[in-house]
From TrEMBL:
Protein known as: N-acylneuraminate cytidylyltransferase
Gene3D superfamilies: Spore Coat Polysaccharide Biosynthesis Protein SpsA, Chain A (3.90.550.10)
Family annotation (Pfam families): CTP_transf_3
The entry's keywords: Nucleotidyltransferase, Transferase
Leading EC class: transferase
Organism: Sphingobacterium sp. (strain 21)
SUPFAM superfamilies: Nucleotide-diphospho-sugar transferases
GO molecular function, one term: N-acylneuraminate cytidylyltransferase activity
UniProt EC number: 2.7.7.43
InterPro entries the UniProt entry points to: CMP-NeuNAc_synthase (IPR050793), Cytidylyl_trans (IPR003329), Nucleotide-diphossugar_trans (IPR029044)
Length: 226
């Protein structure tokens, strides 16, 4: 299976985060190494608009056969268009027809090859259209509220939740793994009625967006190596 690691140069929350050194290695290296170690992944491509990110990615074993066009590297560019571009490029330049793929965000460095293989195994076992990694929400869903600009509470749910709904655990996508059939790109969606969740523990679900996230993951890595 093809693994695509999207890593554009710009980042508002933490500039340069994709190649910022995390415990001695560029952040993106963790996702590349996990993909290369996976028994299910046969090709690892980093799609980026940065020559520096491309060079570092290739140093760690990924392929970077092109630089992403500028129109696909803005804050408003859609991820789905980035994946379409990669698929189209491979078809046109390597005569490769991609039937399914795994998207591995570089901002999830605690996701391992074991997680990747487990998610892909679930994808094949269920003959799924997609498998997406999720994490259990530790706050009861009934506590969730919108907060208005003037600081007041606003209900998310228009109707009161019954006891059964209140007790059921809820889950959120952690951004670590997306496995899906490439034909979903034409439909411009990630989920169908034949989509499944690969549930990951909270400790492996940190998605780095800020310096605080980065420092927390650095702490977790250092603690694990003690």
């Amino acid at each position: 299976m093809l693994a695509i690691i999207p890593a554009r140069e710009g980042s508002k929350g933490l500039p340069g985060k994709n190649i910022k050194l995390l415990a001695g290695k560029p952040l993106i290296a963790y996702s590349i190494e996990a993909a290369l170690k996976s028994r299910s992944i046969t090709k690892v491509i980093v799609t980026t608009d940065s020559e520096e990110i491309a060079k570092i990615s290739m140093d760690f074993g990924a392929e970077c056969p092109f630089l992403r066009p500028s129109e696909l590297s803005t804050d408003t560019a859609r991820s789905i268009d980035v994946y379409k571009h990669t698929i189209d490029w491979l078809r046109a330049n390597e005569s490769l027809e991609v039937e399914s793929m795994a998207i591995l965000q570089p901002t999830s460095p605690l996701r391992t090859h074991v997680d990747i293989d487990a998610a892909i195994s679930l994808f094949y076992e269920r003959n799924a259209d997609s498998v997406v990694s999720y994490c259990r929400e530790h706050h009861p869903i009934r506590w969730h509220k919108y907060i208005t600009e003037d600081g007041k509470f606003e209900n998310i749910f228009q109707e009161a939740l019954n006891n059964r709904q209140v007790e059921r655990p809820s889950f959120f996508p952690n951004g670590a793994i997306y496995v899906f059939r490439s034909n979903l790109m034409e439909q411009e969606k990630y989920y169908t009625s034949n989509s499944y969740a690969y549930v990951m523990p909270r400790i492996k679900s940190v998605d780095i967006d800020t310096l605080e996230d980065f420092e927390y993951v650095e702490f977790l890595i250092s603690k694990a190596s003690d």
